[in-house]
Specification:
Distance between the termini: 18 Å
Largest sheet: 4 strands, mixed
Shape: globular
Strand order of the largest sheet: 4-5-6-7
Strand content: 15-25%
Helix content: 10-25%
Structural class: alpha/beta
Length: 136
């Protein structure tokens, strides 16, 4: 991959949460030439037995789990993994209106989702109005 400023990965960096694949993924990330690597867990990673140690295992990335990262005034917010919600999701209320990029493993309803996206995320995106939404 060509070098860059930011690499964003929106989850499913393992098959069914296999520890060895997370270790391999981290090693691969370490070979890339990016100033910042940001990721969220996908459904394959979210229930892994090693998830509580993910920050140490994925040392070549910043994992955002309902958290934001500010890079020189540019704000990226990453959500936890959720299956699509019809109603509200308190985690999406944590997304600041000052957010430039939202990372969510699943798509917002109506955006390249084959009518299977999350309506609660869609409402959050409409409220926040980020420049970009990245989904896995």
């Amino acid at each position: 991959m060509p070098p860059g400023d930011i690499l964003i990965h929106a989850g499913d960096y393992t098959l069914f949460g296999k520890y060895e694949e997370a270790v391999d993924f981290n090693a691969w990330l370490g070979t890339l030439n990016y100033d910042t690597v940001v990721l969220v867990h996908g459904n394959h990673d979210a229930n892994a037995s090693w998830k509580k140690d993910a920050d140490a295992i994925l040392s070549n990335a910043t994992i955002l789990n309902d958290q934001s990262l500010d890079l020189d005034g540019f704000r990226i917010h990453g959500t936890q993994f959720f299956w699509p919600c019809r109603w509200s999701n308190p985690s999406y209320e944590l997304i600041s209106p000052r957010t430039d990029v939202v990372i969510a493993h699943g798509p917002a309803y109506g955006f390249v989702d084959n009518d299977c996206g999350c309506r609660a995320l869609r409402r959050a995106v409409e409220r926040v109005k980020p420049r970009l939404v990245v989904s896995g």
